[in-house]
Amino acid sequence: QVQVVESGGGLVQPGGSLRLSCEVSGVTLRNSAIGWFRQAPGKAREGVSCLSSSDDSTYYADSVRGRFTISRDNAKNTVHLYMSNLKPEDTAEYSCGVDAVGSAWYICTSGGGAVEHWGQGALVAVFS
Q1: Is-contact 20 36, C-beta < 8 A?
Q2: How many angstroms separate the CA atoms of 10 and 27, rounded?
Q3: What's the confidence (pLDDT) of residue 45?
Q4: How many Å apart are CA 71 and CA 57, to the nearest integer?
Q5: Which residues of 1-128 form beta strands (DSSP E)?
Q6: Measured at the alpha carbon of residue 84, what is the angle toward residues 78 and 87, in degrees to the nearest 5?
Q7: CA dihedral 80, 86, 92, 96 (to 10 degrees)
Q8: 3-state secondary structure of 98
Q9: CB-CB contact of 45 with 112 (8 Å)
Q10: d(CA 18, CA 8)
Q11: Which residues does the chain have with pLDDT short of 50?
């Protein structure tokens, strides 16, 4: 049974930082792509940052490049998203998704359409 469990998120002031974590079990991550997606009220889901396990390639949406960093902890089967210099427009529900065989670019640019397994979501709210 595949489980995707997110942690982190919360409330933060503009300019602040947060870290999201995504722990995956029940599926090998050897050739997988793992990504963080977000959806704000009234907006479509977008791929924020994704990582390919096969070659460690990464993808970042233009809106977060330079502020967000995705990384992987192989020992813990966990992927982290470190978010810095947060802005009010980053407010959204963030979800972790896994595609057992995929690429960072495709899983993110498809907006999560290629995701096979989803976590429950974590709210990130940025406000003064």
Answers
A1: yes
A2: 28
A3: 96
A4: 10
A5: 3-8, 10-12, 18-25, 33-39, 46-52, 58-60, 68-73, 78-83, 92-99, 117-118, 122-126
A6: 120
A7: -10
A8: strand
A9: yes
A10: 7
A11: none
